[in-house]
Design brief:
mainly beta, four-stranded antiparallel beta sheet
Length: 171
């Protein structure tokens, strides 16, 4: 790279960047407990969401349909925002796991039927998208299960990683 082409100033530091709207905009999260929407050509956020009830968001995942953002919140919940106007979907809250203090990754299944996340106790949680209830939970790692994703080409399988230094494939 020959140098910086653009810069989007934000304080405190940025936790995540997630592309939305067919990759013409992106959402950032930071420790100031906010979500911001940015465009490529303007270094000023076009939308800023900061609510007193919000917590820091260390992980964000875009659904395969591009309609939803899953936001792992430090209050042990995954909240859902619609990407079209970046509005909180209050009916979609996924809980039961313990992530406070950890940047555990959350992800959608390739068909958007399920949501997955690890937690601080080494467990992997899978929630049903429609009901928001825990579909399955299992001990995946000794220590924090920091990442959990579906295999894109074999959607019956998931991969987890943890602070125990292991990556595991689950059927």
């Amino acid at each position: 790279s020959s140098g910086i082409n653009a810069e989007w100033p934000l304080r405190p530091g940025v936790n995540t960047i997630t592309f939305i709207e067919r990759n013409i905009s992106f959402v950032s999260t930071s420790d100031d407990k906010s979500l911001r929407v940015w465009d490529w050509d303007i270094p000023v956020d076009r939308k800023h969401i900061a609510d007193p009830s919000m917590h820091a968001i260390p992980s964000v995942s875009l659904s395969a349909s591009g309609k939803w953002l899953a936001c792992q919140s430090m209050d042990n919940k995954i909240t859902i925002f619609a990407t079209q106007k970046l509005r909180l979907n209050r009916k979609k809250v996924f809980k039961g796991h313990m992530v406070a203090g950890y940047a555990c990754q959350c992800n959608f299944s390739p068909d958007n039927s399920y949501l997955i996340s690890g937690d601080a106790d080494g467990r992997c949680f899978i929630w049903d998208w429609k009901t928001t209830k825990v579909y399955k939970r299992f001990k995946a790692h000794e220590g924090v299960c920091i990442g959990a994703v579906w295999l894109p080409h074999e959607t019956s399988k998931v991969v987890t990683c943890g602070w125990d230094g292991k990556i595991k494939l689950w059927d």
